[in-house]
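Email to the structure team, subject: tRNA:m(4)X modification enzyme TRM13 model.

Hi all, the expression group asked for a predicted structure before they design truncation constructs. Nothing fancy, just the tokens so they can compare against earlier work. One-line instruction: predict tRNA:m(4)X modification enzyme TRM13, return tokens.
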Amino acid sequence: MTPAPGRRFCGEHGQHEEENDRKRIPCPLDPNHTVYEDQLQKHLKKCNSREKPKPVYYVQDINAGLKDVTKIPEEQQVPISSLSKEELQDLIRKLKTASNGISSILKDQTLSHQAFKEVLNDPKNGECAFKHLKQQVTWNSCIYLGQDDVLATTRFKVDGKHRKRDSIFERLQVDIQHLCLNKIPILVKEKLSVVGIGKHLCGVATDLALRCLIESFTTQDDGINEEPSAKRLKSDNTQAGSNNFTDKERSGENVSESYNTVAGIVIALCCHHKCDWKHYVGREFFKKVGLGQVEFNFFQRMSSWATCGMQETISEACSSDVECGAQSSDADEHDQAYNRPECNSDSIQGLLTVEERKQIGHLCKLLIDHGRIEYLQQRGYKAVLQYYTDSTVSLENVLLTAVPNPCSVLQSTA
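Reply from the structure team: attached below.
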């Protein structure tokens, strides 16, 4: 190899000398990696951190909620352990008063579809793997019940299988905080209704998803419209007025097929400690029962008391299961909840027993979720909370479901 002009060595042997002569600098787009200074312009054109063109359905912060609320950093929030006995008792009193009248008894909707029978009965499944599979099966059964042909791997990642079938499958790579449903080309072109399905939409992600489904689907191009979607469920080609409803619409039959709207919502709820007042959809409910951001910040942290024992249970089950492997990754996503200071029995100085903390944690979750239920009900949806799997499988076993309420639709458009 011939040395380049001005170089003592060929490219192979001069590489070390060349690297010593060149300066590396932090990438201005992402300082977590560096680049040769003389290659900066070339790097900026292909850097993975460069700003990419926004898709047509991207609308900045459309599902973010309040814009004038200052988020209190976690490190600046008053620790629960620093509360006096009187302050803690007053907080619990407010929680119980606000929860008065809210039923804590949920319907058990644990289902199992025949398509998952073979997966569940696989003798290779250890105890830990079986628990995770059972949770996924009951969850998927809530969605697939009634379908005769379901294709799913152990991890139920079926993107590739959908592409081989007679259907259109597209993954939208966008933060749900910025996703505007009524700008997705296929929904606009085909005037399609939407069914929202979510599992492990941790904390604030559930609120962003609900606002995306309920509000962004009725947003006009000239800005965010706060009008309840139930008032705008009728498609453009249907005349308004109660006298124009068909017999099927009056009886509530197939109403969801008559409107360009959200036909249903199914979300497995979890990680309430990751909720955020700014994005929370149940703020009006909290205000109605005399609560605000301060109480919300305490309750969302105290909600982790309901699941403080989960990590220990998972560890015990997995310690003897060498094949737990990937199956435990879903649980790993929630480890932060189990290891939070609020889960430490010493953090409240022995003022409450373990069982009392657990009950209060469940009550915090219930209150936060009820705010979501009222949000949906006020916008014309019949929404309920129910169990989708047994607590021995997962302590995060509550499912939120919602469908358009035919009565609300008819009344709001009359």
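The chain has two domains: 1-51, 59-218+260-308+348-404. Residues 40 and 46 are 10 Å apart (CA to CA). Ping us if the truncation boundaries need rechecking.
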